[in-house]
Amino acid sequence: MGFAELISIAWRGILDNRMRSILTVLGIIIGIGAVIILLAIGQGAKLETQKQIQSLGSNLIYIRPGSVSPSSISLGQGSAATLTYNDANAIREICPAVADVAAVYNSMFQVQHAGMNTSTSIVATEPSYCDIRNFHTIKGRFFTQADCDSYARVCVLGDTVVENIFGEDEDPVGKSVLIRGEVFNVLGVMEHKGMSQFNDNDDQIFVPLTTGYNTLFGSNAATGRIVKSILVEAKAEDEVSQAEFQITNVLRQRHKCMPPVGDDFMIRTQVDIMQTAQSVTEVFTLLLGTTAGISLLVGGIGIMNIMLVSVTERTREIGIRKAIGARYHQIMAQFIIEAMVLSLTGGIIGIGVGLLGAALVGNLAKWTTEVTPESVILSFFVSIAIGLFFGIYPARQAARLDPITALRAE
Fold this sequence. Notes:
By secondary structure, the chain is of the alpha+beta class. It is 55% helix and 18% strand.
């Protein structure tokens, strides 16, 4: 008996019980479709995370106050005021692999304009912040070094702040706002940046660092002008590690962090953040894929169930085939192929459903989805494997039937 004849017999067996076969195939369709859709969502989340991190700037290095250990007690990241504006200047002047530096001090304050008010993050920084973070104005301009040198009371608004206190129709450029009771003139509006790490990058107001110390934050005579973070841009992507090494040495010398005393600052590169984000999204994708895989398992059990029922119903047919010379492996092949035809049919339709479903999720839910060729190929071969694995047991049951007993079956 040839392969084509086995396929023909398998289709006849499936078509003889159409409704039961359709319901069985439906389980595979749902399982394969769910795998493709959920993996597309996971891959989309990974791409969106990479996009957001890359939008923060290029060749970035973040420096924050870090762990200090007075009396062997470890304090958490950012728990001690260990970074100063002078540290930022030293990095700028000493480290040859560094292209630019921006010191940052931020705090939450109430902002008012014409009876409207909102609580937002006030970010005091330097003019280099825009280029380092790849975050520019869409209206007006950012403040300059001349504004910093003259302690100018000027600011640049994020578009969430504009929406909260100005509304959509009023142009804020040239107007004034009250920050902690102090009048600041609006120079410009930042481009829309969106969310990153659960923070709204548009709910911020940027002011010159010198003005922030002079009018909003003050400075400590003992520690100098404290900063909450220092943003550094390396000259090139392949110089990020070198820049990190140079910064570490400069800060250790300035802060006298020599063994056994640990560093009182934390340095993270954009590569570190990307790797962390990727590991999180990979776990997320794995969980989604596992969830969808459970439905595939249920579909496979459904195939095994229908094949066992089919063996029971076709006992007499199996007996007749054995009586006229059908061998063990031929009976096995007949029922395995029947199971694989069911599974493969469901897999092909399921792939189409998955592609359509991923597109609908992207368009209707406005989520980023990305169907990879690997997920489609995997789904195809998984559908074949399901038919093979769950078809073997019923096929063996059929092939092991005693022909005399089978012929007596009604």
